[in-house]
Recover the amino acids of this structure.
């Protein structure tokens, strides 16, 4: 793997040199955009609005409009704005992970100690395990400030990029049922039974695989052989009964029969 950021973790007066590696990768098929007339690849061009000519990457700069005039920023200007955040993940506080709502979670990364940082890296990892805390901090990567969480995971320190609170939308304009909606005790009992029925004795996340790509690849191979692929009929069927209890009961019975067939 190739590091995407190098710097240090600021832990009090201790600096831990680290490198950041992406912990995830895309698993979707690599589909190309083509001209439907001749199947030629579509190429995106960077066009000068005034001249209509294509601009090379080396000639592109970033700028910000101030009083109808652009202020052009060079690469080192982004680091000059906050050199410490460009090179340092500054830990600001330690908290219980449970207080961070999952809505704030964005992207996971692996942290590896750089040469000379192994001991301090291990110390922070073990201290997080001992206290049951996670660290919250900020750093700048690719001209953007990031809010993050550091947590101990087995023998590693993980960095989870978090969303800033202002990036979470309000939902007050959505039509959400009130918590005061009257739920019949029998309905709740039946719903709880359905949840328990679908709760495995032992959870194995590896069983969740992307099967859509496999189905799509099967279709692609059929089309490559010149076979005509028919459109399968599928329609979301609404339960004829509006009785919620009847729907829950039917769901429980359906799951019971499915489990019997599987066994």
């Amino acid at each position: 793997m190739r590091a995407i950021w190098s710097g240090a973790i600021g832990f009090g007066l201790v600096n831990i040199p680290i490198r950041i590696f992406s912990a995830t990768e895309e698993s979707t098929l690599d589909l190309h955009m083509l001209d439907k007339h001749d199947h030629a690849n579509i190429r995106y061009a960077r066009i000068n609005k005034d001249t209509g000519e294509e601009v090379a990457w080396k000639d592109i700069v970033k700028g910000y409009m101030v009083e109808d005039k652009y202020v052009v920023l060079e690469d080192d200007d982004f680091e000059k704005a906050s050199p410490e955040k460009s090179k340092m993940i500054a830990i600001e506080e330690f908290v219980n992970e449970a207080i961070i709502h999952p809505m704030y979670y964005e992207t996971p990364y692996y942290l590896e100690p750089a040469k000379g940082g192994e001991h301090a890296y291990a110390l922070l990892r073990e201290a997080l395990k001992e206290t049951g805390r996670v660290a919250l901090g900020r750093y700048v990567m690719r001209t953007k400030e990031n809010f993050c969480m550091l947590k101990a995971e087995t023998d590693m320190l993980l960095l989870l990029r978090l969303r800033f609170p202002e990036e979470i939308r309000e939902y007050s304009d959505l039509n959400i049922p009130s918590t005061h909606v009257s739920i019949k005790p029998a309905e709740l009992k039946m719903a709880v039974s359905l949840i328990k029925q679908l709760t495995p004795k032992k959870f194995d996340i590896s069983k969740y695989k992307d099967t859509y790509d496999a189905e799509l690849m099967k279709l692609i191979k059929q089309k490559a052989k010149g076979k005509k692929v028919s459109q399968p009929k599928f329609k979301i069927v609404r339960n004829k009964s509006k009785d919620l209890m009847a729907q829950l009961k039917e769901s429980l019975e359906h799951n019971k029969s499915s489990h019997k067939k599987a066994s």
